[in-house]
Amino acid sequence: NEPKGTEVNPYAIKNTDAEICAFIDSDAYPVSKSWIKDAVNLFDDANIGAVGGPNIIPQNSPLLEKVSADIIYSRLCAGGNYPIRKYKVKGTYEYREIASSNLFVRKSLLDKIGGFDPYQLTSEDSKLCFQINALRKKVIFAQNVAVYHRRRRLFWSHTKRVFIEGRNKAFIFKEIFSFDKLFYFFPSLFVLG
What we know:
Layout: H1 10-15, E1 20-24, E2 28-30, H2 35-40, E3 48-52, E4 55-56, H3 63-73, H4 75-78, H5 82-86, E5 92-94, E6 102-106, H6 107-113, H7 124-134, E7 138-142, E8 147-149, H8 156-175, H9 186-192
Parallel strand pairs: 3-7, 4-8
Antiparallel strand pairs: 1-6, 2-8, 3-6, 5-7
């Protein structure tokens, strides 16, 4: 089968001599000129495997994109992800996963894991972060490592994206199950109830 998922270039990862690889989406851009420096400074701790931060919707975004972001960031939709989605927690802390639209990873870990799963249409970042955690390395969320990132508009494109991400996360959970991931299902259980 041909890989259908992530657009991350495995050739670039394999052939770089950098110690840290940075990933950002094509429709995202750093909030601060010190974006790279702020992230790289956190890697002084050898136990940190990945660093990322907020994906903030730009102020000039259309209303339907802002509403889409508000839904994704809501306590009901995000469940256990609510604090990181809303970015109300100041500073730096350990977290389960960070989006690849704003993610820095040690090259040695990417080599060990084999990089992003090219067969994942979405959620390749979740799987990578879970694998980093399995290697006893920390995934760190840092509020000052922020990017502006566009969102899908309501209704169809938003719903389609949420469905695809949910389906792909379910496949990942089947492959890499642990009880600490059950909080992802709380919003779905609420809706079904």
